[in-house]
Amino acid sequence: MKIKTHRGAAKRFKATGGGGFKRKRAFLRHGMRKRNQDVKRVLRKKTMVSGANSKAVKLMLPNG
C-alpha cells in the first residue's frame, strides 16, 4: 500500500537539506497592537522544528 502524506503537515512544514524541518512561529494571529515591533519582526521569521517533534513530522511527511 502507498504511504500517504499528511496534507495538513505538508502545508505547515518544509524539509531542509540537512534533514530537519522548518516551520512558522506561533503567536502572530491577533493582539498585535500591544506587541513591540522588535517582537513582531522576530515572529515573522521561520524557525526549525525541535528534535522532540522531528520524528512525528518525519512520519507525517514520508516523501520529504
Give the tally of β-strands: 3
- Topology as a string of helices (H) and strands (E): HEEHEH
CATH architecture: Irregular
CATH class designation? Few Secondary Structures
Notes on the structure:
The protein is an alpha+beta fold and about 60 residues long. It has one domain: Factor Xa Inhibitor (Irregular), CATH 4.10.410.60. The protein contains 3 helices and 3 strands. Strands 1-2-3 form a 3-stranded antiparallel β-sheet. Strand 1 and strand 2 form a beta hairpin. The chain is elongated. About 5% of the residues are buried.
Question: What key attributes describe this structure?
Answer:
three-stranded antiparallel sheet, 3 helices, 3 strands, about 60 residues, Factor Xa Inhibitor
Q: What is the compact description of this entry?
A:
The protein is α+β, with helices and mostly antiparallel strands and 64 residues long.
Helices and strands in order, then pairings?
Layout: H1 7-12, E1 14-15, E2 21-24, H2 37-44, E3 46-48, H3 51-60
Antiparallel strand pairs: 1-2, 2-3
